[in-house]
Amino acid sequence: MSDDDLWRMLHEIDNMPYGAGQIAALEQLLRRADAGDDRHLAFSARISGTTAYVYGGEPAKSVVTFSWCLAEYDRDPQPYHRRYTHQLLWFFKYMVNAMLKFPELPLDRTYAVLDDMERRYREAGHGLQAVHKHRFLVAAHLGTEEEAAEWYRRWMTTPRDALSDCAGCDPTSQVEHLATIGRYDEAVALAEPVLAGRLTCTEQPQAILTALLRPYLETGRGDAARNAHREAYRRLRGRLSDLWEIADHVEFCTLTGNVARALELVERHLDWLDRAPTPAAAMHFAATASAALRQVPGELTAHRRAFGDRPAGDVPVGDLADELAGTATALAARFDARNGTAHQSGLIARRLAARQVGEHLPLSASLRRPVRATPPTVTPGGEPAPTATPVPTAPADVVVPPDATAVELLELADECWRTHRRDGLVAALRAYDERFGGAELPAATRARRLELRAGELDERAGADPATAVEVNRVALAAWREVPDPIRAQVVAGRLGALLCLTDEDAEEGLALARESADHLTRLGDQRERAAGWDRLALAYVHRERWTEALDASGRAAAEADVDPWLAVRVALHRAHILEQLEWAEEFREAAGRARRLSREVGDAELLAAACLAYARSVDDPAEAVAACDEALAVAPPGARLPLRVTRGRALLGADRAGEAVDDLAEAVTLCVEQGAPGDALLRWELADAYRLAGRLGEAAEVAEEAIIGLDRLGAQAEADRCRHLLAGVYEGLGEIEPALALLDQLAENLDGRDNLPHRGQVLEEAGGVLYDADRDALAAQRFAAAASAYRLAGHPVDELRARRRELLALQWSGDLPAAVAAIEVLDSAAGKLADLPEEPPVVTYERAMAADAGARVLAAEDRLTAALDRVAGVPGRLRGIEAFGEAAQVELFTGELLLRDDRPAEAERLLRGVLGGLPTGSRPAAQGAWLLARALDELGRGAEAAKLRAEHGIEEG
């Protein structure tokens, strides 16, 4: 590469975002610069490198580049050195800060740097405000309070100058000091005017907002604390150099009782410890992470990514907390050994002891209440399943007669079971056990009591299915011994449906359920026949044999009207089957019937289930919301989760995303509270709702949480779709680098022939992000990669579009030779779509726009005739597919080409026609009027040109 190329490379590196990518590019440049003889380039590259290392998370390397530059500056002064004098003096502050954070660096070296800094500042005629500040920082690090107070006084009383830290960073250090000594109100008062101003420093406003977390909390400003946490953490979370500040946010989550969020932050940044920017940052993060993990239930785990020889895996939170505490205390001891004080150990001990202070302050955009952090799991289909309904605690509404016989008590219990009065069932059976539990009773009575044990199991949240199977086997054996074929077949049907829940016993279960339905059809009464077919339908449902389930449920429905309670259950089961079969109209009818019948029997649980089914069956979102509202008014706690999910989705369907957020956030909270599966998937939906509601910061926060959960589950397809959503959110927030990082990761994840179209889409989106950010050379690379993916996938239209965008990006990047060379590639892609028997509008559009793009590149080379040839006929083709705006733009460009080719008369004719069809006041109209006025000037018709400019508000000149 030539020297000019290397200088251009340095300029590009300076415009790159801080981080590993910039550092890698910089180190490549340093090697090339050192191999040559351009001392100026070598010096400039190291000046850039010093800043890149500080903000890119490798401050130790900044000491090397700074020392090299300072030695060169002193050893052999050159004219170009003068332009870097201010930066070199500024870098002394970086060095003092960095040296304090490495315990292996002796303190006397730090003091020597401070002394040199003071000498040079004096010699250059600068004040010592920044020197006093950094002497204060050293004293504060050592814990020498009197010395720190004196340097703080000098810092505050010395006038600011050009080498003072910025208007945000100086107050940040002051806020940190005031918070350390408990002067929280003063800290807030000091920061308010700073935050009201415009902060453009790399470290602001996130640094001062982080410093304000504890003052806001201690002074009762909960909303301000929450907002500061959200805004600051969003800015910090992607920068390794800010690991220490991230530690402050982990501690803030602990202090405010947000255990689940603290765990998420720890998991997100845990692997950063392996490449921490400084030992001090590692020490503080390890301490705050350990304290946070102490608040997490001990049976849970934290996920740790792979590093070096260590594989990825889940670590019990207690073990990890102990490990991190050991790391933090060992590092603190090293600092204290270097410093000759015990200050750092005391500080870390306090951080390790952090616990919730005061009331819970909700921080999460996805959790509405403080809940136990529970590792999520995935369910088939991704639907969060409701947990078992808790046993009602209300007083029983069934009166148990004091003189009832054993048979009467069992009949009462059976009636309560049939009519969903679970409290009455429990009361009747308790009375039976108390009065007749030890009595000698007929075999049929004992069998009846054994059968009713299955009803008792319904009352126990989370009852083991194996227990239910065993209970029914015992009851079946008892009825066979009586013998009572009818009761035996009723129990056999229940047992069969239960066995169909398992793979190993499914065949036995189906055989029992079929035999039961057949037997009861021949010998049972109407209710027994309907119930038998309903149990067989359930058995088929459990095996996902939907057609057979529908047939069985139909036979059940034909006779279920004899019992309104049974009719409701049959209708609900039938609605579920029809939903799975995607018979939309029949599903809606069955759900509506279940809703009507459940209202008639007046059971809250059945009504909630029926309303939920009906809400899912209707197309009208408003009708779905109304059904969910009816259900939520009566639903028991365990039924609220699916209702909130369905209501939220219906609101999204009605374009009421702001309201949907509340339902989906409540659903996430319920999911975590109940330990139900699917919270990561729900967070993904919630993130999309926040996005649609325009609340992008919260959308990003929740999407980040969702990706962590989905990755942990190994659900890569879902995680990648969430990443795609998050990339768009980042772009909307103006956070270009995180958006690009996600899109690049997606492109890598989609590396496979089956994923080529999606890979092309992601790469093209990345190109669009870069193009909009005026990083055109990189945009061109992404568009070229997208075009290659589309070509391999056999998507020629997409390939042509990507090639066109590559061409324009190359032109705007200033690499005109590459753009000209790319025209041939573009034309080749367009040629694949030529001579189609019936050209679709999308092909017409892309071929026309490709011709226009090539013409613009040729025009940039002053090849005007070739450019005009390319756009000939293009406007007409565009109008033929009603792309009127694009047609007008091509005609305006053609008019410009005619003017540049000294053909003003032709340009006038063309531009008058175009201008007449453009909306007055629009940007294209202004452009057309400007070009037409220019044509009139060249034709010697200045008065007409002046009048035209006046009409369109165009200044002369």
Number of strands: 2
Radius of gyration: 37 Å
CATH homologous superfamily descriptor of the domain at 703-894: Tetratricopeptide repeat domain
Main sheet record: 2 strands, antiparallel
The CATH topology of the domain at 703-894 is given as Serine Threonine Protein Phosphatase 5, Tetratricopeptide repeat
The computed structural class is mainly alpha
Can you tell me the CATH class of the domain at 703-894?
Answer: Mainly Alpha
Number of helices: 47
Low-confidence stretches: 373-396
- The main sheet orders its strands as 1-2
What is the architecture of the domain at 703-894 at the second tier of CATH?
Alpha Horseshoe
Oligomer: single chain
Q: Helix amount, in percent?
A: over 70%
What would the principal axes of the Cα set say about the shape? Answer: globular
Mean of pLDDT: 91
Briefly summarize what is shown.
This protein has 957 residues and is mainly α. 72% of the residues lie in helices and 1% in strands.
List keywords for this structure.
957 residues; mainly alpha; 2 strands; globular
Task: Give a verbal description of the structure.
The chain is an all-alpha fold and 957 residues long. Among the domains are: 237-342 and 350-363, no CATH class; 703-894, Serine Threonine Protein Phosphatase 5, Tetratricopeptide repeat. Helices cover 72% and strands 1% of the residues. The chain is built from 47 helices and 2 strands. Strands 1-2 form a two-stranded antiparallel sheet. β1 and β2 form a beta hairpin. α34 packs antiparallel against α35 and α37 (756-772) runs parallel beside α39. The two termini are 43 Å apart.
